[in-house]
Amino acid sequence: MAAPHMGAQPHRLPLDRGPIPSASRRGETVRHAATPNARENGMDRLSKPPSRAAQVLVVSRQQNFGIDASQFGPGWEIRHHHQLRDLPRVVRGSGPMAGVLDLESEYTDAEIALLEQSLQCLHVMWVAITSPQRLEDERVRRLIRDYCVDYVRVPFSYNELAYTLKHAHGMAALHAARGPDTAVQGKMIGECAAMRAMFRSLSKVAHNDAPVFISGESGTGKELAAQAIHEASNRRKGPFVAINCGAIPPHLVQSELFGYEKGAFTGANQRKIGWIEQAQGGTLFLDEIGDLPLESQVALLRFLQQGMITRLGGHQSIPLDLRIISATHVDLVAAQAEGRFRSDLFHRLCVLTLSIPPLRERGEDILLLANAVLAEHGHEAHRRIRGFSPCATQAMMQYGWPGNVRELINRVRRAIVMTDNRKITAEDLQLHGNSDAPRKTLDAIREEAEREAIRSVMASHGFHVVPAARELNVSRVTLYRLMHKHNIRVEGQSNHAE
Ligand SMILES: Nc1ncnc2c1ncn2[C@@H]1O[C@H](COP(=O)(O)OP(=O)(O)OP(=O)(O)O)[C@@H](O)[C@H]1O
Ligand SMILES: [Mg+2]
User: Fold this and answer.
1) Region 41-68: what's the mean pLDDT?
2) Do 154 and 188 belong to one domain?
3) Ligand 1 atom at shortest distance from the alpha carbon of 365
4) What does the mean pLDDT of the chain come to?
5) Are residues 314 and 379 both part of a single domain?
6) CATH at 328
7) Distances from the Cα of 80 to the Cαs of 123, 144, 405, 442, in angstroms?
8) Is 273 helix (H, G, I), strand (E, B) or coil?
9) What whole-number distance in Å separates Cα of residue 426 and Cα of residue 429?
10) Whose CA is nearest to atom 31 of ligand 1?
11) How many Å separate Cα 332 from the centre of its chain?
12) What CATH number is given to the structural domain containing 410?
């Protein structure tokens, strides 16, 4: 198989040019970029050297597949790995890195399964190298779609690859900076105090088997949180079955949930296993539980009390071992008061609760999420986008986000496709003028004013807390508490001012 190469350059084995092997492990070689060659090639502007060498893991089943380390300029450390069997261990044991995944080679299904195990770790962000022919293979498309932040097609330019890898490396560092909760929160991005508190609760409920009720406005990430609970629980090897109770026609809810036997009713030509039974051994996520019709609530309650179901038309009770997570954006307390939701079921479902904060209360997480969406979908643009303009950043911070994370994803994705600018503007996000933004409450306006006052006074004192506290006429401790509350960081530090 040919190694990837620069379009305009004659093909040569990447190892010919004398990058210096600095270490060697089983199935692995490490090379540092050779600066002079990079200069000769005019590549020195590719990448400002990061303060420490940025690690890149190049993965291929082919021993002769390589990336020419000398093309990257200084500050990169390129490691090659071709023993797929060892890859999960190597990836798990590494720090934040960018990964290059050779998807130009062909892989067996077993090798793909090995790759998938390794690609899931969020502290390594992958860029695939592939060819137009290989993109015809759905398995290749799926690997790119589900696990890679970007891909390049052969023949590619090292300029393009280095830019993409730099981005991937930055994303990996962001994920790694989340700390030990990473395994718990799954794909959820969040660093503000409210989200960190939520991740801590998520970790606790994940290690318990009692039913969990997740509350939160529409689009805040309730389903993602349910998946994260499942992934962090000891049922992670079992199925995760998500049902939207509001989307099933009321007359079909019972048969969909509990299944039926052949001949149970006209049209029941064969036995059907219901959703609840399909979750055996795993987790059943009952989304929009507030929309469950009353008669199905009774049947669900019976199952929760007895741990058994009976299929419609069946006589046998089937014992089930599964964990229930439920969610709704409906106010269940009001629904109980109005007789639309059974109190006994409510208490059974809400043994543990998890509350997801609305996006407008997540401070700079809004920008973190927007950048993550840009990193993931930036390749959908017709030109390279270099971030968000100051007006876009300000508009995102001021907007009320009634549709929460889902709305943010949609706005940024639309802006990526529609923009003609190098940086996404407030107009691209359709947030200019903010005329259709919902009105803010007095509390929200106060909070925002408090946050802005603290930010500007801190900035005017070079982020020194003592003089800033003096000017604001509060104690140092109060100022630290307020900075923590508003997720304001001391510039130059990556952590929260906690
Ligand atoms: N913290 C997060 N980090 C990254 N993506 C997120 C986060 N929270 C939500 N999302 C994404 O936002 C979208 C909406 O999330 P999800 O479907 O889990 O929300 P929901 O609360 O279940 O919404 P609804 O109430 O409408 O059912 C999804 O694409 C999800 O991947
Ligand atoms: Mg949902």
Assistant:
1) 65
2) no
3) 1
4) 80
5) no
6) 3.40.50.300
7) 18, 20, 37, 57
8) strand
9) 5
10) 224
11) 29
12) 1.10.8.60
Query: What residue's CA is closest to ligand 1, atom 8?
Result: 221
C-beta of residue 498 within 8 angstroms of C-beta of residue 484:
yes
Domain end call among 176, 203, 227: 176
Give per-residue pLDDT as tens, 165-196: 988 888 888 877 655 444 556 689 988 888 88
Interval 342-398: pLDDT, tens: 999 999 999 898 989 999 999 888 998 999 899 888 888 888 888 899 899 999 999
pLDDT digits (tens, 9 = 90+) for 257-276: 999 999 888 888 899 999 99
CA dist 64 and 82 (Å) reads: 9
Ligand 1, CB within 6 Å, residue ranges = 187-190, 216, 218-224, 329, 369, 405-406, 409
Query: 316 C-alpha vs ligand 2 centroid, how far in Å?
Result: 33
pLDDT at 483 over 80: yes
Residues 295 and 155 in one domain: no
pLDDT at 152 over 80: yes
Angle (CA) 284 285 286, round 5°? 110
* Residue 52 confidence class, pLDDT cut points 50, 70, 90: low
Beta-strand pair 76-81/28-32: antiparallel
CA-closest candidate to residue 79, choices 70, 88, 67, 71: 67
> Are residues 123 and 90 located together in one domain of the fold?
yes
- Residue found under tokens 């960081």: 489
Structure tokens given for 206: 């994940």
As for how many domains the chain has, the answer is 4
DSSP per-residue letters across 407-430: HHHHHHHHHHHH--SSSB-TTTTT
405/258 Cα distance (integer angstroms): 33
Distance CA 334, CA 59 (A): 55
Which residue do the tokens 């099933």 mark? Answer: 248
What are the tokens at 457?
């006074």
